[in-house]
Amino acid sequence: MENRFNIQPAKPDRKSSMMKKYKSAIILFAVFEAIAVWLWLSTGSLFYLLNFSYIGCILGIGLALSAAGWKYAREFVQFGVGSYMLVFLGLICRENMQIEGFWYYLFSGVLGAGVLHYAIAKIFGPLLFGRGWCGYACWTAMILDLLPFKKPAGPRKRIGFIRYIMFALSLGIVILLISLGKANKTTMFYLFVAGNVVYYVVGILLALVLKDNRAFCKFICPITVFLKPMSYFSLLRVKCDESKCIQCGKCLDVCPMDVEVNKDARNRENATECILCQKCKKACPVKALK
Among the three residues 231, 246, 273, which one is the final residue of a domain in this structure? Predict the structure, then answer.
């Protein structure tokens, strides 16, 4: 029908469109800034304001770059956060940011960086963002992801039980050190350095043998004992519109964690392994993943 009154269709508001595009980046930055201010005011320590503001900035910028379509946005965040925690907090500030540091501070009754880090990133945080830590901040995976085996070469091995042995071992080491009176910040620092060397060596060797960059994450990493159960209930997750899915398998081909991402159910195979890397969404030809 002819438009007799020459009414032009409404154009989308550029400002609201931009806000929608970068909404996730803004929200995540705001959440970390709120945590930063709260911890600063409640403890009186400027460190918490600067620490969480920096992490929030990197995460916010990374998500914005991802929304803008930059290919290496995740890697930007991974190195920005991972190297900061490894080099600055770990090696320069001499804080044990590994799981042994968490046990040490927990048993000592001290609200140290290790306890806060685990509470936010690995225990309660996964209820919101799943295993985002593994995909965007882990300094071990930061290096392992540089290896050439982006996609597992074979079927997943049934050796995930090793992570529980490592979890118990880390707890046992700290309990032993405490019982011997040897648990202190100096011991924890050297344990942090030694632990990272072992993680890198084992992680690289596993990747070379199994031809899988993320083999360490799947079978060895003790932190996943915290991450996996919480991630099952995560608010932020890759969803599949199965009515759109054409079962081409391209999402499965690029997933580094063997997640059955072409199913939408929370109990899909390896559901709690998803690191939110977004590779599946980029590979989907019909935009069935969101």
Answer: 231
| Residue 30 within a domain | no
> For residue range 206-231, what is the model confidence (pLDDT) as tens digits?
999 999 999 999 999 999 999 999 99
User: For 234, how many CA atoms within 13 A lie in the half-sphere containing its CB?
Assistant: 29
Cβ atoms 112, 60 nearer than 8 A:
no
Residue 240: phi and psi, rounded to 5, are: -120, 125
Task: Tell me if 257 is assigned to some domain.
Answer: yes
Report whether 150 contacts 207 (CB < 8 A). Answer: no
- pLDDT 10s digits, 255-280: 999 999 999 999 999 999 999 999 99
User: 108 and 218 share a domain?
Assistant: yes
Please say whether the beta carbons of 240 and 288 come within 8 A.
Answer: yes
Contact 86, 101 (CB under 8 A): no
Instruction: Please tell me the pTM assigned to this model.
Output: 0.87
* Judgement on whether residues 262 and 196 belong to the same structural domain of the protein: no
- Residues 137 and 185 both lie in one domain: yes
User: Which residue among 215, 231, 247 closes a domain?
Assistant: 231
Instruction: Classify residue 70: in a domain, yes or no.
Output: no
Contacts of 36 (CB under 8 A, 6+ apart): 48, 49, 50, 51, 52, 53, 56
